[in-house]
Design brief:
Number of helices: 7
Helix content: 25-40%
Distance between the termini: 107 Å
CATH architecture of the largest domain: 2-Layer Sandwich
Number of domains: 3
Strand content: 15-25%
Length: about 260
């Protein structure tokens, strides 16, 4: 075999080695990224309907997922408001902002998986305590709470009441705001109707600061002003409630005069 042929074989062998290295080290990892780098769902035989790995936002579905999905799909039929909470462990990241973002991504990826209309949904991010070897095994980091619409809003004639599902928050589901705006209507130029708005604070157990009652009233007032009500048509007041169902203590009552 000539030197020329040997050189050619060496070149081919080198090229084959290079192609193998390129595939193994560069191409294959990109085609097979881990859960920490991908938002794609994984289906495994897991004991939880929805679970996650340490510091990951990838949703893994397991036992009971089909029922959870069916419940989410039936929100409108059941006339429910749903609170989806995303949790994190304090050691999953170094900064609080990173942990908050991790919780939000877990919520967002879960909602994408459900593919439901979000006008009935509220979201909240919160820390949770380590109770098992979560650095090794998948764990739950999403909770879903369902509320009947009639527990959040109720109205009769010239009186409307809306309650705030999340503690220390002024966020309402979009569908509840829609119903409130429809009830209030848009006053005409010659409309002299007075709109009374009373915010309440939770007085049961560890009572809320009374400021929350006014904050809730102001939030609804601003909504009314945005829809055409004049400042001098609106009267604000506050109060406190001690109902056993704490949701009914964080409310705003509106009525016309």
């Amino acid at each position: 075999m000539t030197i020329k042929n040997l050189a050619y074989l060496a070149l081919v062998a080198g090229w084959i080695c290079f192609c193998y290295w390129l595939y193994a080290e560069r191409i294959s990892p990109r085609l097979n990224r881990t859960g920490e780098e991908s938002n794609e769902t994984q289906t495994d035989s897991l004991p939880y309907p929805l679970s996650f790995k340490w510091a990951s936002d990838t949703v893994m579905v397991g036992t009971g997922f089909d029922k959870v999905k069916a419940d989410m799909d039936s929100m409108a039929v059941r006339d429910e408001v749903v609170i989806v909470r995303g949790f994190y462990f304090r050691d999953e990241a170094t900064e609080i902002s990173e942990l908050q973002e991790l919780g939000k991504r877990r919520i967002n990826n879960t909602l994408k998986l459900f593919g439901v209309n979000d006008r009935r949904i509220l979201t909240e991010v919160a820390p949770q305590e380590i109770t098992a070897d979560v650095r090794v095994y998948p764990f739950e980091a999403i909770s879903i709470e369902r509320l009947q619409m009639e527990d959040v809003i109720k109205w009769s004639g010239d009186t409307f009441e809306v309650c705030f599902p999340l503690k220390d928050s002024l966020v309402l589901p979009a569908i509840c705001l829609d119903k409130l705006v429809t009830w209030m209507g848009i006053p005409g130029e010659d409309n002299l109707t007075k709109l009374h708005i009373t915010g309440t604070a939770d007085g049961g157990g560890i009572a809320e600061p009374s400021d929350w009652a006014m904050e809730r009233a102001l939030y609804i007032k601003n909504t009314a002003v945005d829809k055409g009500w004049k400042e001098d048509q609106i009267q604000l007041s506050t109060g406190q409630r001690n109902h056993p169902l704490t949701l009914w203590n964080r409310c705003v009552v509106l009525y016309f005069e």
